[in-house]
Design goal:
There is one protein chain. The chain is α/β, with parallel strands linked by helices. It folds into three domains: 168 residues, 3-Layer(aba) Sandwich (Rossmann fold); 155 residues, 2-Layer Sandwich (Dihydrodipicolinate Reductase, domain 2); 86 residues, ACT domain (Alpha-Beta Plaits, 2-Layer Sandwich). The chain has 15 helices and 17 strands. Strands 7, 8, 9, 10, 11, 12, 13, 14, 15, 16 and 17 form an eleven-stranded mixed beta sheet that branches. It has a six-stranded parallel beta sheet with strand order 3-2-1-4-5-6, with helices on both faces. Helix 6 runs parallel beside helix 11 and helix 14 runs antiparallel to helix 15. The protein is elongated. The chain starts with a strand and ends with a strand. L-homoserine (HSE) binds next to helix 8.
Length: 436
């Protein structure tokens, strides 16, 4: 059988990794796919990249639409990232009857519903394993391996840059900006690193996981999104003293009211495996009604780890090139006409424990004022730390850990605490999850 010709859009970190893995493992990949797979055409603004990657036979263009419109190309691999022109390129590829593989989480999270509908209409596949958690095959696990289960919840460390920053702050006391600069130099961070530190990248990935877990359309815009930029080294230290690690988590949970879909810094007991996932590594913990807890761990970014997922998708597409489109694994795991309209739960209705850090006047009665506000709202305190102030200090850090409480009640309590004369500045809050 003739080899399948693929076209790469982008020869950057992931594009380069994909070309390298396809070439290095060509024989093994052909044995798996049942046909050879060759990179025939690539779009890049740096044509010298092909030579650097040892791909001198490769046809190169600077216009990605040349690849998308080329009749010899069966599979378009979009590794440019971002919303545009990635969306236009992918839609054009589908219009031309080509299958698409993409690592683009922003594209899938925001435009996935439209893209999948068009792919369905045209009978082509859009595969996106590399869009979430890099090399970890979490899409495949959720969509196929766990297909028997009713998924109850999942929680993931799905942004490597954020996890790297939190780990280095905790273990080496390094400053936030310094670690972020290193993540950028290592090629882990997004082109716009605010996507990493403000949680947008994780929210893209979580909305994809949530749709696949619960069979609902992609709803990135309804994902509660909070980043790690306000976490201080003190918070990391206090959390540790209380027996917790701070992780930037994406959490999707099925409840009676709907689906919780939220991304925020979370304190997790150090005894949980996922609390010990460090550096740029990613992990996703999934709780299914039949299987119980399963944990998926691995590199969430980087050239070859991400290429591992891209190439697996290419092989999947090659294997099913001739399959009846109606009988393929559905893009969002559930049949398109069986997606549910379960609502996304408002953040105010969610219950978690809370870590609160506040800067308080150092005199009698202050704590009583704070605990009175909490008590009036039935917010019960689980643990408490007050640091001994330096001799001349007139202010102290107070740290409280609460039992589970409704977010709306906590918001109201924090507002009242911040209005107290004896409290300076904002109250820092981190949600606490036991993940049991
Ligand atoms: N910026 C992302 C991260 C890259 O740090 O996880 C992988 O999606």
């Amino acid at each position: 059988m003739n080899p399948v010709k693929i076209g790469l859009l982008g020869l950057g970190t992931v594009g380069g990794g994909t070309a390298t893995v396809l070439k290095r493992n060509a024989e093994e990949i052909a044995r798996r796919a049942g046909r050879g797979i060759i990179v025939d055409y690539a779009a890049t603004l740096e044509p010298e990249r092909a030579g650097e990657l040892g791909l001198s036979d490769l046809r190169i263009t600077q216009d990605a639409f040349d690849v998308v419109n080329d009749p010899d190309i069966s599979i378009v691999v979009e590794l440019i990232g971002g919303y545009s022109p990635a969306k236009e390129l992918v839609l054009q590829a589908i219009e031309n009857g080509k299958h698409v593989v993409t690592a683009n989480k922003a594209l899938i999270a925001v435009h996935g519903n439209e893209i999948f509908a068009k792919a369905q209409e045209k009978g082509v596949m859009v595969a996106f394993e590399a869009a979430v958690a890099g090399g970890i095959p979490i899409i495949k696990a959720l969509r196929e391996g766990l297909a028997a289960n009713k998924i109850e919840w999942l929680a993931g460390i799905i942004n490597g840059t954020g996890n790297f920053i939190l780990t280095e702050m905790r273990d080496k006391g390094r400053a936030f900006d310094d670690v972020l600069a290193e993540a950028q130099a290592l090629g882990y961070a997004e082109a716009d690193p605010t996507f990493d530190v403000e949680g947008i990248d994780a929210a893209h990935k979580l909305s994809i996981l949530s749709s696949i877990a619960f069979g609902i359309p992609l709803q990135f815009e309804k994902t509660y999104t909070e980043g790690i930029s306000k976490i201080s080294r003190d918070d990391v230290t206090y959390a540790s003293e209380l027996g917790y690690n701070i992780k930037h988590l994406g959490i999707a949970r099925r409840t009676k009211e709907g689906v919780e879909q939220r991304v925020h810094p979370t304190m997790i007991p150090k005894t949980r495996l996922i609390a010990n996932v460090n550096g740029v590594m990613n992990a996703v913990l999934v709780n299914g009604d039949a299987v119980g807890h399963t944990l998926y761990y691995g590199a969430g970014a980087g050239d070859e780890p991400t290429a591992s997922a891209v190439v697996a998708d290419i092989i999947d597409v090659v294997r099913v090139l001739t399959t009846d489109p109606e009988n393929r694994v559905p893009h969002l795991a559930f049949q398109p006409d069986s997606l549910a309209d379960t609502p996304i739960v408002s953040m105010d209705a969610i219950e978690t424990g809370f870590y609160l850090r506040m800067r308080a006047a150092n005199h009698a009665g202050v704590l009583a004022e704070v605990t009175k506000i909490l008590g009036e709202r039935n917010i019960s305190i689980e643990a408490f730390i007050q640091k001994e102030p330096s001799e001349d200090a007139d202010k102290v850090d107070i740290i409280l850990l609460t039992h589970r409480v409704n977010e709306g009640d906590m918001n109201a309590a924090i507002k009242e605490i911040e209005a107290l004369d004896v409290i300076t500045g904002d109250v820092m809050r981190i949600r606490v999850e036991s993940l049991k």
